[in-house]
Model the fold of this input.
Amino acid sequence: MSAPLADRIRPSSLDEVVGQRHLLAEGNILRKVIDSGQLTNMIFYGPSGVGKTTVARIIAEASGRRLHKLNGTNAGTADIKEVISEIGTFSAPNGILLYLDEIQYLNKKQQQSLLEYIENGNITLIASTTENPYFYIYNAILSRSTVFEFKPVDARDIEPAIRRAVKFLADEQQRQLSISDEAVSVIAQGCGGDVRKAINAVELCSICLLGDGDAVIDAAMATDVSQRSSMRYDRDGDQHYDIFSAFQKSMRGSDPDAAVHYLARLLEAGDLPGACRRLMVCACEDVGLAYPQIIPIVKSCVDAALQVGLPEARIPLADAVIMVATAPKSNSGACAIDAAISDIRAGRSGDIPSSLKDGHYGGAKKLGNAIGYKYPHDYPNSYVDQQYLPNEIKDAKYYNYGNNKNEQAFKAYWDSIKGRKD
Done:
């Protein structure tokens, strides 16, 4: 059985690598390191299919050092010990270059076993990971390595790779095989920045056209093989948190178009509960007291979405997201509770004033509880000046009125009642 097309046409030089110009273009940092021949410990971080493994292999093959390749998904402690056992032998006189793919799957102990040899230079590590290395890789390994972030490849950079794959298959199969410009665009746009996925789509189209004479990959076929492939989402990975972050920041930033876009990503990934939760949080945290009526409105939309389910849930959620994005904003409530919690956690609290303590039980008066409490409704405008905070923090100020019409109206009202001049 032949290797997948993506492996058969894998680039053999840095100039053939698709994308990652921010790292590999002449004069950029990773290219300088590679061209210098002075290898250091490196960690390549980024999504699948963007060239991490390819670049690591090119570096390894050009190094002239004893090369070991391990994959974290199936490598065990015995495999690591076997690599270490070659240090100082005739087979590795200049040390070992270890290419470790998917390093995040090695546990802490396995990663630690490499630390001594990375420290003294007997092993030079090139590792790749699709997960955030600052969460999944042992800190001592990170501190001795340089992290390079690989990014999804732009569609325009993927198009030459698609045409190259078609030509390679035509030559390999010794037949006429071509692809329309529209089909190239469909595959490049639909692969979500994953070059491997784009090449796999070309290979699948080619298989579908086996037996045809002069075969042409058209837009309709490209659409069939590319459907839903652009979705990058992992409920346990970075994309999960990145999309949620972008979703809430877009609503907070009052950009309804971006907010609806990220809502669509979440719904296409089937994460209805996650979208609902973050939407409710944003309504309370970022709109809050500027338009407090929005909270029950958004709750109603969320309830409707959860009741009807997808795909109809998209409609009430879109309404709610747009409302949150276009509503006036205030985080004064969130700031107030966070400031209060900060005091509590720091031990700044104190005893509740006696006048506020519960007096509805026998013996309460003997303890001095509830004595001197002034019932606000017995006074004009239902307000009377008295101390509510503990003595130790009686001057603490947690809530500051937001600069919006609603809160400023409340401020003006209470300033007039309390006789404030500021």
User: Anything to note?
Assistant: Strands lie at 42-45, 66-71, 96-101, 123-129, 146-149, 177-179, 215-217.
